């Protein structure tokens, strides 16, 4: 349980982590994912493992980018010190439901509860993909969040964009912007591939 | 600390402390914490569950019953804690893992032992004497993010002597209430089995599942020895009936943890205990299907096929059969399974996705 406290304290401290402004317009995430932004965001430059942006602040809303995760790789590392926890490993053969199950594992690892509300087929990054919406009760502060994610597998690599925010006020304010950004997202070829 | 013997008797009801005292300050903080829990969306608001847990606590607590307030919390880890003001939290991961009312009583009796012996106050005084008072209260100081009594309780864990004392009192309370005290050691056997999937690891330090109630062989043996020949009842059917409506949610949350090694050990035990339940076969199959190691998918398929023939088989059994059959290239069987799922749950939140799988499979 000491680890949980450390994680929580880390989360608090991460609130003070350095951030950089992300200007509106075209942006490239992890050198691969191109998105068009209607407005500015804030990007965490440390203290987070996956690229994470926010408008309102770390403890309020969070937009995460899981870009070009390769077959056999975890979508994200488990918390430091939690080496007994199973890695959340992506396999290129996974169906949408199985990919969402990875995110259920990711978002509940701190004791939060995750409810999948819907999962629908959509085209994402030019591939047959999926959109999932979810409800999360955050264990740390008991806040009920709404979330939406877009995912697809392109040439055996997984890309997912996931956004969550308190269901009252914040999520409805940004949902349309997220949907528009996700539906317009596209992948650049990998550097190795030219 | 004098050892608690079989002749131990519970103290009279505990009076609220002087608000100006250290203990009074702690109570004020706990009352704030309790208000937060009452509003928490993680509080399980099932009236029947609440009343049942309160009844068990009262069987154990006797005249202390009016001072005990029970809060079942939806968190899929094994934990319970009782604060010195009578606030008793029981986490849903514990409810999934106990097999009967006697095991539940063993945990609640243990927590009540801490309460009746005022162990938290002793810890508070000890913390003050070590100039660690601020650290003791740090979780409250950080407000909502950390203001969880259960977290705090585990941060400043009771001494080994206090834990032993609470174990002994728990057994005494179990006996007095008519429960079989041998069930206390059985809990730790079950948790040790789950923890055994991490050989060589000290899961009490690294796994949130076991962090607050570390299972140890020594503790199990001591409890078994103290329980002797037992006597009393387990009240298994009572427990399973009274918590039956919640099982689905508890199992869903268990699978979502994605800790399939632990879940499979747990579900093996639950299936053995209640082999007539199709839902348990389904969730064991899910754990195996999603883990997908060695012969997992074959075993999942066997569970799903068995579950499909049982009464009250969840519609999701057909969906999982569809996934496996599709992955194996058995298109007609996959189509049939997905169609069966959609027929049972046409308005499911994933209906459109399943329809897309059907389109992939062709006609």
What does this structure look like?
- The complex is a heterodimer of chains A (194) and B (363).
- Chain A is of the alpha+beta class and 194 residues long.
- Chain A is built from three helices and eleven strands; from the N terminus they run αββββββαββββαβ.
- Chain A has helices at 2-14, 96-107, 170-183; strands spanning 19-22, 25-29, 33-37, 41-44, 52-54, 62-69, 113-124, 127-137, 144-154, 157-166, 186-187.
- In chain A, strands 1-4-5-6-10-9-8-7 form an eight-stranded antiparallel β-sheet, with helices on both faces. Chain A has a three-stranded antiparallel β-sheet with strand order 2-3-11.
- The radius of gyration of chain A is 16 Å and the shape is globular.
- The relative contact order of chain A is 0.16.
- Chain B is mostly helical and 363 residues long.
- Chain B has two domains: 22-227, no CATH class; 247-361, Alpha Horseshoe (Serine Threonine Protein Phosphatase 5, Tetratricopeptide repeat), CATH 1.25.40.
- In chain B, 62% of the residues lie in helices and 4% in strands.
- Chain B has helices spanning 22-39, 47-61, 92-97, 101-116, 119-129, 133-141, 149-155, 160-177, 182-195, 203-206, 217-227, 236-242, 247-256, 260-273, 278-291, 296-308, 316-327, 331-344, 351-361, and strands at residues 69-73, 80-82, 87-91.
- Chain B has a three-stranded mixed β-sheet with strand order 1-3-2, sandwiched between helices.
- In chain B, strand 2 and strand 3 (87-91) form a beta hairpin.
- The termini of chain B are far apart.
- The model of chain B is unreliable at 138-147 (pLDDT under 50).
């Amino acid at each position: 349980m000491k680890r949980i406290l450390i994680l929580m304290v880390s989360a608090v401290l991460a609130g003070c982590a350095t951030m950089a402004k992300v200007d509106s317009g075209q942006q490239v995430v992890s050198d691969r994912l191109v998105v068009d932004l209607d407005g500015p965001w804030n990007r965490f430059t440390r203290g987070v493992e996956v690229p994470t942006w926010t408008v309102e602040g770390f403890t309020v809303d969070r937009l995460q980018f899981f870009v070009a995760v390769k077959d056999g790789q975890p979508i994200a590392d488990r918390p430091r010190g939690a080496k007994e926890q199973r890695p959340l490993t992506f396999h290129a053969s996974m169906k949408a439901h199985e990919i969402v199950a990875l995110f259920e594992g990711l978002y509940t690892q701190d004791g939060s509860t995750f409810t999948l509300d819907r999962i629908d087929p959509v085209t994402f990054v030019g591939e047959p993909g999926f959109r999932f919406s979810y409800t999360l009760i955050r264990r740390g502060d008991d806040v009920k969040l709404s979330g939406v994610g877009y995912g697809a597998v392109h040439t055996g690599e997984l890309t997912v964009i996931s956004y969550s925010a308190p269901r009252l006020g914040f999520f409805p304010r940004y949902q349309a912007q997220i949907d528009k950004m996700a539906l317009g997202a596209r992948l650049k070829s990998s550097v190795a591939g030219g | 600390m004098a050892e608690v013997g079989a002749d131990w008797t519970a103290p009279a009801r505990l009076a609220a402390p002087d608000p100006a005292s250290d203990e009074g300050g702690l109570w004020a903080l706990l009352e704030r914490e309790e208000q937060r829990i009452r509003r928490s969306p993680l509080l399980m608001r099932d009236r029947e569950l609440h009343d049942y847990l309160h009844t068990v606590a009262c069987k154990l607590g006797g005249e202390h019953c009016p001072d005990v307030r029970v809060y079942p919390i939806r968190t899929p880890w094994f934990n319970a804690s009782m604060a010195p003001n009578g606030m008793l939290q029981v986490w849903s991961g514990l409810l999934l893992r106990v097999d009967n009312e006697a095991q539940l009583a063993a945990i609640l009796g243990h927590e009540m032992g801490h309460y009746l012996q005022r162990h938290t106050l002793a810890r508070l005084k000890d913390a003050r004497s070590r100039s660690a008072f601020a650290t003791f209260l740090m979780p409250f100081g950080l407000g909502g993010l950390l203001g969880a009594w259960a977290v705090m309780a585990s941060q400043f864990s009771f001494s080994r002597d206090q834990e032993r004392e609470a174990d002994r009192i728990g057994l005494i309370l179990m006996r007095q209430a008519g429960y079989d005290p041998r069930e206390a050691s059985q809990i730790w056997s079950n948790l040790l089995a789950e923890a055994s999937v991490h050989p060589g690891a000290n899961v009490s330090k690294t796994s949130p599942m076991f962090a607050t109630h570390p299972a140890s062989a020594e503790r199990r043996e001591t409890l078994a020895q103290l329980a002797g020949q037992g006597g009393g009842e387990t009240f298994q059917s009572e427990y399973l009936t009274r918590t039956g409506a919640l099982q689905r949610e508890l199992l869903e949350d268990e699978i979502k943890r994605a800790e399939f090694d632990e879940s499979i050990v747990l579900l093996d035990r639950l299936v053995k205990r209640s082999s007539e339940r199709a839902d348990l076969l389904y969730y064991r199959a899910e754990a195996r299907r999603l883990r997908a190691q060695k012969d997992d998918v074959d075993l999942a398929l066997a569970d799903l096929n068995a579950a499909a023939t049982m009464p009250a088989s969840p519609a999701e059994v057909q969906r999982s059969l569809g996934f496996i059959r599709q992955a194996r290239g058995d298109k007609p069987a996959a189509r049939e399974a997905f169609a069966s799922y959609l027929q049972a749950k046409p308005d499911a939140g994933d209906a459109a996705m399943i329809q897309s799988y059907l389109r992939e499979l062709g006609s």
